[in-house]
Design goal:
mainly alpha; Rossmann fold; Arc Repressor Mutant, subunit A; DNA-binding; BTAD domain-containing putative transcriptional regulator; BTAD; Sig_transdc_resp-reg_C-effctor; P-loop_NTPase
Length: about 1000
């Protein structure tokens, strides 16, 4: 009989082909879990309600239970029945159909067997587990713990059975993981000691006992149990344990590496690459800041290489230790003594002794923690490699050894998933996997879910994907939730202050890790490290020199020492944790305000320079440069907004084009709202243009602003009376979108154009914008010939400049013109061309809008399936970019499709949702009108002529205040004619 139901992990149901099927949401799965735990038994409704809702069930819980049972019956698709009996509910499922029942049966059978058969049955039972029992049913935690206890008991019995068969080495890794997950379970520790001892690793077995003794004393104030003490005594007496003989010290093949207590996560590709480097280079140095995982990576490489590998830790040595001390550490790690190295009666110095021992051996020597003895380590490694031609060396350090022939491998952060990554991708990212693995060790059953994924990703991202910091954070899940850990990372050094007591002190807390690196810096390096924390999101060498007075050599020294990281683009970045520490040091010096002022002044000059290139063929290059500095620009603007209103106003003016072109419109609206509040809604003398920029950004955002109409009227007067060229010519394009056409634009067109002409004298881009504006105004007035003539001229002039935004706006206007006149092929071609240019600009909001407009044409061409795909694409991009206006228009488009397919109810829902979501701005008028025309057609289809006429009236009124929209007017007349 196939297994159909699983609770040894998340609750699962499989069909006859073994494919998982969905039975419903969390409540339904929880109900199924409780019935599976009592399969074949009648479960009273009261127990199910208690299980599902706890001690305070909601009113109507009995009815809710009946609804959940109905959903479960549908979801099971006949694989089992949920019977209603007088005393309650019963699930009809056989023992072999449920993984927990099958596990219990196999474990019971194993208890009656011995030797290989017992091990085989227990292995089969344990393979049924897919993760923590009932992982997605927190309501069943008590039952989950019972199942987990049975699992651990089976694991213990299997390990003991394999050791009785002499197979100690097979269970070492598994027992280490189990001890890490259940540190107070002394039986597991006893089994681990036996497995190590039986594998020939007596010293590690004794170390495991010592760790257990210290942990029990520290945590419980107790001594080891008799079982643990007895195993310890047997090892000390060297009593026989089934297994291979213990290898003599200092001899024999195989790695001599520290045993690891945790699993290795996320660097498989790096292992392959570094293994390849060791084939071509005899010295490979793993570089990275403290906590990057260099030591663990070196150990994993050594274990993978096989053969003879030795691990030497230089961390206990004092800075400046000479060659003899380094060599003595290596001799101790290799188990070398003077006896047997040189003839009797002769005494060898440590370096000579080591060189003689390694002269003819194929050995990989791992030299760990070289940074504080880097000069001595370089001489030491170089001498050994010269004298021992079969030797290879892996070094770990925070800066290169600088030895001829050295190959460097920067140990980067574990990959953190991008924002809004799909669940499976995010949960599988190496940083998240490491956090999950370590968190489950301190909180059994912990797993990443849709609910906690955001907090876990935030933790991993805030900690730069650094393994040690992530492990320290995961350890706090012993008492905190993932969300609570994420919320406390602002004080990360206090939060992450409890680490593994058995580790070197400088790896026990996050602060100790960074302080170790800080103490190795020269004074001038410490000064620059403090100052560089003024940057946010990275910096260039030129910016560091201007703002911080950085000497290039010192800057590169910090990169060599892994205090900062240099990317492929040449930009430098300081890891957030190091930056937090150095920022504390900066504030202690009182340099903070001076540095922030210099930072803000530098980036205002930068964005002013960029502004001159934003209306040229260099537009994309400078947009990318501004995007690279986005963190610095935001930090400088926030500082200015808090300390210097005039500086902040200049920033808003200069950044307006960037915000608009790159779709960062909510950022511009938020800061504009803050500054306008400080201004009291009126211009600051001498900063009239900057005031208009604030009003434009606010009007184009989604922030409610009751005083906005007054500020728009005031800004319009400012623009018409400014009497000079604008510092930010792009502001006029934004203003046209923000304020909309004036009520009497037809009569005042020449006056308006004359005022704008003075502002655009000798400005080719501005003159092209004027032609675009004339084209739009003629389009609004249905003067199609004049509109087309001016739009083609504008397109040619924008094209000559290479300015993509102007080209896309003009192409869209021409497409609208041809759409209105029925030339759909030309309209579609223009929107396709515009879409290519918009994607080059990288503006999510504009991309979503053009996808939506393209879908409209496809629908007019009766390409319904393509149109639906287009609207869905627009919806996805709009959600990512936060473009509520486009989302509303997508609802309208999908409503049009539903209407065409005769689904009046779906069409009505879409139109009403669009009206609810569309922003209250003038440019929403056409969308409002089209939605009401759609609702009029729905009403007509239902025979409700009065409602249809009412919606038609609302549609025509919506656009009447701004322009004469012939397509809206024609559609209104067509609907009304159908009602007569």
């Amino acid at each position: 009989m196939p297994m159909r139901f699983g609770i040894l992990g998340a609750v699962e149901v499989w069909d006859d082909d073994g494919e998982p099927i969905s039975v419903g949401g969390p409540r339904v799965r929880a109900l199924l879990a409780f019935l599976l735990l009592n399969a074949g038994k009648v479960v009273p409704p009261e127990l199910l309600i208690d299980g599902l809702y706890g001690e305070e069930p909601p009113a109507g819980a009995a009815n809710a239970l009946q609804s959940q049972v109905s959903r479960l019956r549908r979801g099971l698709r006949g694989l089992a029945e949920v019977e209603l009996l007088p005393a309650g509910y019963r699930l009809t499922a056989g023992r072999d159909e449920i993984d927990s029942q099958r596990f219990a049966a196999l474990a019971e059978s194993a208890g009656r067997e011995s030797g290989e058969r017992r091990a085989e049955l227990l292995g089969e039972a344990l393979e049924l587990w897919r993760g923590a029992a009932l992982a997605d049913v927190p309501e069943a935690r008590g039952q989950a713990l019972r199942l987990e206890e049975a699992r651990i008991a089976a694991q213990e019995l299997r390990a003991e059975t394999l050791m009785d068969l002499g197979r100690h080495a097979e269970v070492v890794a598994e027992l280490r993981e189990l001890v890490e997950a259940h540190p107070l379970r002394e039986r597991l520790r006893a089994l681990l000691m036996r497995s190590l001892y039986g594998s020939g690793r007596q010293a590690e077995a004794l170390e495991a006992y010592e760790r257990a003794r210290r942990m029990l004393a520290d945590e419980l104030g107790a001594d080891p149990s008799k079982e643990l003490a007895d195993v310890h005594l047997r090892i000390l007496r060297a009593e026989p344990e089934p297994g291979p003989p213990v290898a003599p010290v200092g001899k024999g093949p195989g790695p001599r590496l520290p045993a690891q207590l945790t699993s290795f996560v996320g660097r498989d590709e790096e292992l392959d690459r570094i293994e390849g480097l060791l084939g071509a280079s005899r010295l490979v140095t793993l570089l990275g800041p403290g906590g990057a995982g260099k030591t663990r990576l070196s150990i994993e490489i050594g274990a993978r290489l096989g053969g003879e590998v030795a691990f030497v830790d230089f961390a206990p040595l004092a800075a400046g230790s000479g060659q003899d001390l380094l060599a003595q550490a290596a001799n101790t790690a290799l188990g070398l003594r003077e006896v047997g190295v040189l003839p009797a009666g002769q005494r060898a110095e440590p370096v000579e002794r080591l060189t003689a021992a390694l002269a003819d051996r194929d050995l990989v020597l791992i030299l760990d923690n070289c940074e504080h003895v880097v000069a001595e380590a370089a001489v030491f490694a170089g001498g050994l490699l010269t004298a021992c031609d079969r030797l290879r060396v892996i070094a770990t350090s925070r800066e290169p050894l600088a030895v001829t022939g050295e190959t460097l491998w920067p140990v980067r952060q574990l990959a953190v998933p991008p924002e809004r990554a799909p669940f499976e991708e995010a949960a599988g990212a190496p940083a998240v996997r490491l956090f999950t693995d370590r968190a489950a060790a301190v909180r059994p059953g912990f797993a990443v879910t849709e609910d906690n994924l955001g907090a876990v990703v935030r933790i991993c991202s805030s900690l730069d994907g650094q393994p040690l910091a992530i492990e320290l954070a995961a350890a706090r899940l012993r008492t905190l939730t993932a969300q609570e850990v994420a919320d406390r990372l602002g004080d990360r050094f206090r939060l992450l202050s409890r680490g593994d007591r058995s580790k070197n002190p400088r790896h026990q807390t996050l602060r100790a890790v960074v302080e170790w690196s800080w103490g190795l810096l020269a004074e001038e390096e410490q000064v620059l490290s403090r100052r560089l924390t003024v940057f946010t999101g990275g910096f260039t060498a030129a910016a560091a020199e201007t703002v911080c007075g950085a000497d290039e050599d010192v800057l590169l020294d910090l990169a060599d020492k892994s205090l900062i990281v240099r990317g492929a683009d040449g930009r430098f970045r300081m890891l957030d944790t190091i930056a937090a520490f150095c920022a504390e040091k900066r504030e202690e010096t009182g340099e903070g305000k001076r540095l922030r002022d210099a930072h803000a002044a530098h980036f205002l000059a930068f964005v002013t320079e960029a502004n001159d290139h934003m209306r040229t063929a260099e537009q994309i290059v400078w947009l990318d440069r501004l995007t690279a500095e986005h963190g610095n620009l935001s930090a400088a603007l926030n500082w200015a907004a808090a300390t210097d209103l005039e500086l902040a106003l200049r920033y808003v003016d200069m950044l307006s084009a960037y915000w608009w072109l790159r779709g960062n419109r909510s950022e511009g609206a938020a800061v504009a709202n803050t500054l306008l509040a400080k201004l009291g809604g009126v211009p600051l003398p001498g900063f009239e243009e900057e005031y208009v920029a604030c009003v434009a950004n606010l009007a184009l955002g989604s922030i409610p602003a009751p005083a906005l109409p007054d500020m728009i009227r005031r800004s319009d007067t400012v623009l018409n009376t400014l009497g000079r060229a604008l510092h930010q010519p792009f502001l006029l394009a934004m203003w046209a979108l923000a304020a909309g056409p004036p009520d009497d634009y037809g009569d005042r067109m020449e006056e308006i154009l004359e005022a704008r002409h003075d502002q655009f004298a000798h400005e080719p881009w501005g003159l092209a914008l004027m032609k675009l504006g004339i084209g739009f105004m003629n389009l609004f007035s249905s003067n199609d010939d004049d509109a087309e003539s001016h739009l083609w001229q504008a397109l040619a002039e924008f094209g000559a400049l290479g300015e993509r935004w102007g080209m896309t706006q003009t192409q869209d206007a021409l497409a609208t013109l041809f759409e209105n006149t029925g030339d759909l092929e030309r309209a579609l071609a223009l929107r396709e061309e515009a879409l290519v240019l918009i994607r080059e600009l990288g503006t999510g909001a504009d991309t979503a809008e053009m996808l939506m407009r393209r879908a409209d044409i496809l629908l007019l061409q009766d390409r319904t399936a393509d149109a639906r795909d287009g609207f869905r694409q627009a919806e996805e991009v709009a959600r990512r970019s936060g473009s509520m206006g486009v989302l509303a228009d997508v609802h309208r488009g999908l409503g049009d499709i539903a209407l065409g397919e005769g689904d009046l109810a779906a069409a009505q829902d879409r139109y009403e949702q669009a009206l609810e979501d569309c922003p209250p701005r003038w440019y929403s008028a056409e969308l409002v009108a089209r939605c009401h025309l759609g609702l009029a057609r729905v009403a007509r289809g239902r025979g409700d002529a009065e409602a249809a006429r009412r919606h038609v009236g609302t549609a025509e009124a919506a656009v009447a205040d701004y322009f004469f929209n012939k397509p809206i007017h024609d559609a209104a007349e067509e609907i009304l004619a159908g009602l007569d």
